[in-house]
Every structure is written in C-alpha cells, then in structure tokens.
C-alpha cells in the first residue's frame, strides 16, 4: 500500500519545481535510468514517492529529473530489469522538460 504524501511534503516538491534545483541537504546523488536497458514499463514512475515525483514518462523514454530525485531506492527496488543507477555526474534538466513538469504540476 502506497503512503499518501502530506500537503507539506507536496508543497516542498512544488517549491523544488519552481526553483529547478536540488536541496543542498540531500546527501545521496540522484538516480538515472539507462535508456538502452529500460523496457518502459513505468513501474519506477508508480513507485516514486509522491513528495518527490521525480520520474516522468517522456514518450519513448522514462526519465528521472535529478533536481526532484532524493536518491532514495524506491524505484530501484521495483524495477524489473535493474536499469536504474546512481547518477554522480548528473546534469541540469533542460527547459523543455521543466516546462512539461510545470504544466503537469499545475494540474495536480
């Protein structure tokens, strides 16, 4: 059974989306999905805790937004093909993806 995130936790996500940055106090690096190994089953997307909501289906790819990913292992534990890895060298998310995220966040 999935826990329902508190409104405070969800407002933290909205703030991270507005700032487009990872909190400095998150010590674990974000995760990344290896596209060549991913079967686009969306299991990771469904397992990502709502207070992070870091995983998005982008058509043919499923992506983790590093600025929203706390580095928790929830998606890793559920992935049936083990295609999710630690991303020590993550790069900032592009504006087009942020625009998509902002549109979907407003509808939530």
TrEMBL record:
Species the sequence originates in: Streptomyces rochei
A GO term for molecular function: iron-sulfur cluster binding
Keyword check for Ribosomal protein: no
PROSITE patterns linked: 4FE4S_FER_1 (PS00198), 4FE4S_FER_2 (PS51379)
Segments of this protein annotated with the region Disordered: 1-30
Keyword terms: Iron, Iron-sulfur, Metal-binding
Protein name: 4Fe-4S dicluster-binding protein
Pfam families hit by this protein: Fer4_21 (PF14697)
Biased composition (Basic and acidic residues): 13-30
Domain 4Fe-4S ferredoxin-type: 29-58, 60-89
């Amino acid at each position: 059974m999935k826990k329902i995130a508190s409104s405070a936790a969800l407002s933290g996500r909205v703030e991270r989306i507005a700032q487009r940055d990872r909190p400095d106090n998150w010590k674990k690096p974000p995760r990344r999905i290896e596209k060549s190994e991913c079967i686009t089953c969306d299991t990771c997307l469904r397992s990502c805790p709502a207070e992070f909501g870091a995983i998005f289906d982008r058509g043919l790819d499923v992506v983790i937004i590093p600025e929203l990913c706390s580095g928790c292992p929830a998606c890793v534990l559920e992935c049936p093909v083990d295609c999710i890895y630690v991303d020590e060298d993550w790069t900032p998310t592009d504006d087009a993806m942020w625009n998509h995220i902002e549109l979907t966040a407003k509808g939530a």
